[in-house]
Structures are given as structure tokens and as C-alpha cells.
Fold this sequence. Notes:
Order of helices and strands: EEEEEEEE
Distance between the termini: 6 Å
Strand order of the largest sheet: 1-8-6-3
Shape: globular
Amino acid sequence: MADIQSPLPGTFYHWASPEDAPYKAQGDAVAVGDTIGLIEVMKTFIEVKAEIAGSFEGYVAADSAPVTAGETLATVSG
């Protein structure tokens, strides 16, 4: 199992907007470069992309939660 970590501090979101489904659900396939969430920093949104391929295990960080750089956001199994 591998962790997807936050590249920077900010607020982590599971989806692009509250009306949308989360980017990934448990069991979804993950390819390198897939967006798994967004980090908001000063009203700017940065996509968090997977650097590994595998099966999405789930989010570790809660939606709309403040996160720090290097904090685990989600896990993927190879």
C-alpha cells in the first residue's frame, strides 16, 4: 500500500464541487496522473495527482480538512 501525500499546506477537497461525486471511490482503478482531490491555497485550487497506479483504498484526510505538506491524503494498493 502506498500513500498519496499533500504537496503543500491548504484545505483538501475530495471533489471539484459539492454537487459532484468524489474523484475516487474505494476500489476504483488509479492510473499515474489521475486527480484524486484538490488543495485550496488562498482561493487557488491545485489538483493532487496520483504518482502510482493501483486500486484506490480510500481517503485518509477528511473532505474540507486543513492539511499540511507531506500529510497523507489517500492510500492506493499496488
